[in-house]
Amino acid sequence: MKVDTKMYTIHRSSLNIQDFYLASSRQLQRLESVSKSPLYTQFNETLQGIGIIRAFGEQNRLFRRPHTRLDTNQQLSYSRFVANRWLSIRLDLLGNCIVFTVAIIGVIFRESIGPGLVGLAVVNSLRLTQVLNMAVHTATDLETNTVAVERVKEYCDVEPEAAWTSGHGSALGKWPQEGRIEFNDYGLRYRNDLELALKNITVAIQKSEKVGIVGRTGAGKSSFTMGLFRIIEAAAGQICIDGIDISTIGLHDLRSRITIIPQDPVLFLGSLRMNLDPFANYCDDDIWTALELAHLKSFVTGLPEKLDYECSEGGENLSVGQRQLVCLARALLRKTKILVLDEATAAVDLETDNLIQSTIRIQFKDCTVITIAHRLNTIMDYSRVLVFDKGQIVEFDTPANLLEKRGLFHNMAKDAGLL
Predict the structure, then answer these.
(1) What CATH class is the domain 2-156?
(2) CB-CB contact of 203 with 237 (8 Å)
(3) Angle in degrees, CA 164, 166, 170, rounded to 5
(4) Sheet holding 181-188, edge to edge
(5) Phi-psi domain of 57 (left: phi exceeds 0; alpha: psi -120 through 50; beta: other)
(6) For the residues of 391-409, what is the DSSP string, one character each?
(7) CA quadruple 324, 327, 333, 338: dihedral positive or negative?
(8) How far apart are CA 368 and CA 98, in angstroms?
(9) Under 8 Å between Cβ of 401 and 410
């Protein structure tokens, strides 16, 4: 009975040690995992911007920052290692107590217990020490490594996008046929705990109208287009295209009917033909016509494989300007009723910018064009200009009238040297 009591006490001691270790080790593992994210992010950003870093001579500053983050990670890793050693020492000590107890019992009751049984008990107690150590380590490591599952679960709990298709998507037909866009008291925020990035947006863009969007950095220009594509859902109000509330339409049905030429051109690993026409909806003649209108025909003709030219991941074997023109050619192929240009000509020279704008005016004359302007001179002949400031519309009129009002647009035109 005394032996059973002693073994029970030892068993409870191992559980107490495990519980004490587990609480601290789990938190240390969580902190260590969190400290790795900035380190990986810094490394990835450094690789992507290595050219800019060298151009500005900021190598030393960029070297010091990851060293600091690496030190933080190593401190937490070392603390977790020390906690692991703490557990091992106490488990070994507990195992030695078991062996010592068995040996003492064998000596005390040597007259009633044979030498063979004593030896067997000592050998089994030594094995028990190893099993106890392994069992506690396995149990604690299992729960500690579950921290990684917690981080995966965070992504699983992220609120998904809306439905990809809607039940009445087939009834849309050739929608939109006119390209009228109406924002009715529209508001948008990036997170529930943040203020509205766009607020009280009420504006109507008529069919075939060319509207330029201007404003200082952070005024809400890109947020305007993100709301149009429902990248971020509305926090207030609604957006209607040809009288249909876009929140009632599936995301695929909406986005497939609006074309955007983004600020950062997107190309995929594959042939040039695949990047221009990924779903093989157009013939070669249409593709060559689009390339000619995008001022890329001479470049593609000079390639050995022509349309079968293999683009690397992200189009790295093309210049940024060429990638932007490929996106323009892709838009010319689709030619939807609504075209959005998100500072699409920021990476090309002024002469090419003028050629692109000329092509857009001719080829998309019957389409509604919304342009986030990088250069004000590209929108001076547009139908109207939308001026944003602090997430609100402050001016909306023709360029000539806005210049006469001497408001924010007038000041921006003056700063750009157009006056």
Answers:
(1) mainly alpha
(2) no
(3) 115
(4) 198-205, 181-188, 236-241, 244-245
(5) left
(6) TEEEEEE-HHHHHHHTSHH
(7) negative
(8) 83
(9) no
Render pLDDT for 92-145 as a digit per residue (tens, 0 to 9).
787 778 778 878 877 777 777 777 777 777 777 777 777 777 777 777 777 777
E-assigned strand segments in 90-207: 181-188, 198-205
- Give dist(CA 28, CA 154) in Å, integer: 19
Return the bridge partners of 241, or none: 181, 244
pLDDT tens digits, 219-257? 888 888 888 888 888 888 888 988 888 888 888 888 888
Cβ-based neighbours of 150, under 8 Å, separated by 6 or more? 30
Per-residue pLDDT reduced to its tens digit, 316-361: 788 877 888 888 888 888 888 888 887 766 666 677 677 777 778 8
Among 10, 16, 3, which Cα is nearest to 97's? 10
| CA proximity to 100, closest of 136, 135, 128 | 128
pTM over 0.85: no
Q: What is the DSSP letter of 378?
A: G
Q: Which residues pair with 211 in a beta bridge?
A: 370, 384
**Token pair of 208 as six digits:** 């075939």
Distance from C-alpha of 382 to C-alpha of 402, rounded to nearest angstrom: 12
What does 178-237 look like in DSSP terms, one character per residue?
A: S--EEEEEEEE-SSTTS--SEEEEEEEE-TT-EEEEEESTTSSHHHHHHHHTTSS--SEE
Cβ atoms of 241 and 179 within 8 Å: the answer is yes
171-176+205-233+241-415, superfamily in CATH?
P-loop containing nucleotide triphosphate hydrolases (3.40.50.300)
Query: Residue with structure tokens 């500005």?
Result: 56
Rounded to an integer, what is the distance from CA 10 to the centroid of its chain?
A: 51
User: E-assigned strands of 17-103?
Assistant: none
209 CB-side CA count, 13 A: 18
For the chain, where do the domains classified as CATH 3.40.50.300 start and end? 171-176+205-233+241-415
Residue type, 274: M
